[in-house]
Design goal:
alpha/beta, Cytidine Deaminase, domain 2, 3 domains, MPN, Regulatory proteasome non-atpase subunit 8, disordered N terminus, 10 strands
């Protein structure tokens, strides 16, 4: 059985495996999960082409799954033969027993992998997780540092029948994913970022870098939408009305920048911002020059103290040494 992602919408009869219970509409990943997965990868598979696999713990409520915690699993697979892999069931059972003693509210909600893509063994791992949870989710957590978009993708398994009389195939279907955190987690992440912050990088530079990363991610999304629309126009894939409606909504929300009033307002706003930056630069330069003049006055041209003061201090030291020497001679003569 091969696991694949559905890129184009086809006329299929789809039935989610979660039909026996509430369907999964949204997955929320908490920061502790990302930290645990990154630590797991760097301990086990750093510098290799291997991936790591683990179990996700959390809570489920009305189709929304909060992934709060995770733990690693001993996992090995043969790259040449995808059907061969090792999954430690005894370790999984023992970890489940220990976690129930610590926190009974957190239950198994699925499993994770560092991917970065879906592999054939993922459906078999999904079947193993179904022994512990009715509707397991599958999360691919991309730990590569050069990724600018959200590093998490969530999937659920669906059954698809393309034509009547054909066999049912199982595939992974995307689930809406977002990052979330409770107040205590937000405070912990803020302290962690404060500890790893680079003091050589100013706050302005970090803000600009964040804006650039956001624009790069937006560019990737727009290119994906462009490729999809071109494929639809060329007849390579069928049009999905839901996707087209979303794209039309995005286009409708864009402001009309060709109106004279808006152009004038943008120019005025830009000039005001540049004026504030210019004044701040002037004030900073004047303060720096003022400090430089004060230093010259205090320490002299060569960076030392005034010559007169230095000579006076040296003469005072010599006189004190002479007095001490004369006092010592008198004491010795007595």
């Amino acid at each position: 059985m091969t696991a694949m992602e559905t890129e184009s919408s086809e006329t299929v009869v789809t039935k989610a495996l979660s039909s026996t219970g509430p369907d999964i509409d949204e997955v929320v990943i908490h920061p502790l999960v990302l930290l645990s997965v990154a630590d797991h990868y760097h301990r086990v598979a750093r510098g290799t082409r291997k991936r790591v696999v683990g179990v996700l713990l959390g809570q489920s409520h009305r189709g929304k799954i909060d992934v709060l915690n995770s733990f690693a699993l001993p996992f090995e697979e043969d790259i040449r033969n995808p059907s061969v892999f090792y999954f430690d069931h005894n370790f999984l059972e023992e970890m489940i027993r220990l976690f129930r003693k610590v926190n009974t509210k957190e239950t198994i909600v699925g499993f994770y992998s560092t991917g970065p893509s879906i592999r054939p063994n993922d459906l078999r791992i999904h079947d193993i997780c179904k022994r512990y949870v009715r509707i397991p989710i599958f999360c691919i957590i991309d730990i590569r540092p050069d990724r600018q978009e959200l590093p998490v993708k969530a999937y659920k398994v669906v059954e698809q029948v393309h034509h009547a009389g054909q066999a049912v195939t199982r595939q992974f279907d995307h689930v809406s994913t977002q990052m979330g955190a409770m107040e205590a987690e937000e405070i912990g992440v803020a302290h962690l970022l404060r500890d790893i912050n680079d003091p050589t990088v100013s706050t302005v530079m970090s803000l600009i870098q964040g804006k650039l990363n956001g624009l790069q991610s937006l560019t990737e999304k727009l290119l994906t939408a462009k490729k999809y629309l071109q494929a639809c126009a060329e007849g390579k894939c069928k049009v999905n009305t839901e996707i087209v409606d979303h794209l039309q909504t995005i286009v409708s929300l864009l402001p009309n920048l060709n109106t004279p009033d808006l152009v004038h307002a943008m120019i005025v706003k830009t000039n005001d911002m540049h004026m504030a930056v210019y004044l701040a630069s002037l004030i900073r330069s004047v303060i720096a020059l003022h400090d430089l003049v004060n230093n010259k006055i205090r320490y002299g041209e060569d960076g030392m103290q005034d010559n007169d003061e230095a000579l006076a201090q040296e003469e005072e030291k010599k006189e004190e040494e002479k007095l001490k020497d004369t006092g010592n001679k008198k004491d010795g003569g007595k």
